[in-house]
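Lecture notes, structural biology module. Today: joint structure prediction for complexes of two components.
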Amino acid sequence: MAQGSVAVWLSIARLAGQEQATVAVEHAVSACAQAVEAGAALSMSLASGVAEPVYATDARSDGLEELQVTLGQGPCLDALTGDGPVLAGDLTAAQALARWPQFAPAALHGGAAALFAVPVQSGAARVGVLSLYRDRAGQLTPAELSLTLLYADAILMLALDERGGLAPGAVELVGRGFTGRRAEIHQASGMISVQLQVSITEALVALRARAFAESRPIADVAADVVDRRLSFAPRGVTIPRQMPRKPHR
Amino acid sequence: MSQRDRRAWQAFVQLADTLVADFDIIDFLDTLAQVSIDVLGVSAAGILLTDHTGSLNLVAASSPQARMVEQSELQHAEGPSLDAYRSGAVVQCPDPSTARERWASFAPAAQAAGYAAVYALPMRLREEAIGAMNLFSAEPGVLDEETTGLGQALADVATIGILHERAFRRHEIVTEQLQKALNSRIVIEQAKGVLAERLHLPIEEAFTVLREYARDHNLKLADVADALARGELHIRLPADEPYRRLRRGDEFSELPPTVCTRRAGHPSRGASRPENITARISRMTSSTRSTARWSFAAQG
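The predicted structure, tokenised, for the full assembly:
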């Protein structure tokens, strides 16, 4: 695992340890806030597409997160619906005021000069958005940005496992990220989403849960799915074919 | 000026233009791949770049075969590009069949894809290594000094451009773009899985279906993949026409038709997402038509 990733997970574990709790999503959010010296908040996307603020390190971050949902605009919402981070280093800048005409002035009034929103996602599997708030203007440095992205990856893994009802600490067994053979993991997620008739997010949850249950590397389970040795389709259910039956190869 | 000198000169001009204009890293790397193929006389190119975790990602590949070989390198964590990235030196593989000891899984993958030689050029500036560019050839043999030098010069220009963007100019914009591009590639993998399962096809054939659908409906591949992954799009194959199998050795470019995607009035990202559409795929009636659409670089 890359150096930066190790440091990120250590910081999360340390924070959880201080509370004598097992590692959970909120520890990752707090650890990120500490690492880049900002307030942090996490909003989760609901099936309806609406964002729901779930964690915040402080009242201001919480308030600004709610404000974006109320106003229906802001970097957090843009990051939720777009595919990439929205890094607003200066909310007084003309572009910020043009892009978020109600939110930007309100945020400034609320004491935030910069806001960095990073999607917590893997392709179409969207869990939510991690937002960082600062009272001084200025972009995150490349190092801080890199850290933030790593924390977002960690939050993704933890959130998926929590959703799957895996035991706290499951991430240690299932894996802290997608290492080699990532393409297969993503392809398997797509296949499973059809087999279970669920979203890609739920498919990824199911994939991780299966790997945990069988104590196998997630990449191996994914390979079984892609090679059609393993199907998640409920038995006795025929997935409607979209083309005429072909001779079995 | 010789034909090759002229092509090299045009290549540098084209790269420089892309660098100084609105910098889009994926467009730039696709251009680099295409330019390298034209100038260096190879069949295909692939480009790997590191992401925020320090691991290499495949960011551009000029053909499905090149993409498969690059993914194999990443999967098994071995191969010429990885060696070039780590060492900072050019790595030549003039005959994969003799390289099985060095790279047990890469060599068969390259041969299976129909490549007789592979050359990897490091993308590095002094101490900072950002990735590698892999060149694939249908002919065996070593790349001569002149061609290697030219290839390295192209890779160096690209490296300098990317590092400059990262270090001095709006690194956050580069990050925003790169993250979007990487996420978009993930969506494409997920969409392949969705389609493969729905149509009971192997993954690579599902990708061909996806690509042809996007092209035939003048949509961006990323948008079609997104709609598929979200379950908003369903693609059916015509029941009466057996699907044309991807033949081994079929070499065709998968670079996006730049002319099409930059056309004024091209549907914006949001608008192009079809809702609950069931569509038929029109079968390609001739391979010459497909090569004419895809090999746009050869025309100019």
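Point to remember: Strands of chain A lie at 39-45, 51-56, 86-88, 114-122, 125-134.
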